[in-house]
Amino acid sequence: MFYYHSMIRFKYLKRKEYEEGAVDEAWGGGRKTSRTRRGVVDVVSLAILTARRPKGEPEIFEHALFGNELRYVYPTVRLWELDVKRLEESHNPFDLALLAARRMIDSGRSDNKRIAFLKQLGGLLDERGWTRERCLALYRFIEWALLPVDEKKLEEYRNWAQKEEKKMYVTVVEKIGIEKGMEIGLEKGKEIGKGEGILIGKEETKREAALRMLDKGLGLSLIAECVDLPEEEVLRLREERS
């Protein structure tokens, strides 16, 4: 459920070693063999609380119906209690996702803080040296958690994202390309029909985005998913480019 080095994992999961034996009955007698499994980890679940709860609220779920009873006790992680400095220094992707959720709480309704946190987390991604696919997947969550609400602030973030496109893993940059494509399509639509114009502009921009992502070395399946094109079409674009 969690990566090995996650702080939460160390807090709630216990690493252990044990030896399990097996008896193999054979003709004329039995022989006992043993094998050791090292690094086996108990699997547990926990609740990640993103908003403060009433004091004294039990960390337990109980349900009873027609003689059946269920009592489920679980640990909780309160985002507002996590150590921000340790999360910032951690090289575990899950901890960076937790930091984004924590910053969502810290920012409150301030779009200025959200933009500042987006820039900070983007910088931390750059420093980690992870694969582009991993960074892109993680930044999708970060953007979801911290994207500004106000249209003017959102435009401010988009302008910054465009300038940082070469360094950043900003998914909103590709969204901007699609929107521009729709604008181009609308202009063409004056001549060939509004609906058809939007489609042409959007498809052209998808291909341009796919070509840029191919130049950056991304995988075919990831590109196809990001720009919403068939994988065969992305492969054809790569062959044409080579």
Q: What do you see in this structure?
A:
The strands form three sheets. A two-stranded antiparallel sheet has the order 1-2. The protein has a two-stranded parallel sheet with strand order 3-6. A two-stranded antiparallel sheet has the order 4-5. It is built from ten helices and six strands. The N terminus is likely disordered. It has 242 residues and is of the alpha+beta class. The longest helix has 22 residues. It is 56% helix and 18% strand. The two termini are 40 Å apart. Among the domains are: 89 residues, no CATH class; 68 residues, no CATH class.
Helix and strand succession?
A: HEEEEEEHHHHHHHHH
* Number of helical segments with 4 or more residues: 10
Low-confidence stretches: 1-36, 189-200
Q: Tell me the distance between the termini.
A: 40 Å
Largest sheet: 2 strands, antiparallel
Helix vs. strand class: alpha+beta
Cα Rg: 25 Å
Q: How much beta, percentage-wise?
A: 15-25%
The residue fraction in helices comes out at 55-70%
Q: What is the oligomer described by this structure?
A: single chain
Molecular shape: extended
Order of the strands making up the biggest sheet = 1-2
Q: Tell how many strands the DSSP assignment holds.
A: 6
Overall mean pLDDT stands at: 70
Summarize the structure.
The protein has 242 residues and is an alpha+beta fold. The protein has helices at 7-12, 84-89, 93-107, 111-128, 132-146, 151-163, 171-192, 194-215, 220-227, 231-241; strands at residues 15-26, 29-41, 47-49, 60-65, 68-73, 76-78. It is 56% helix and 18% strand.
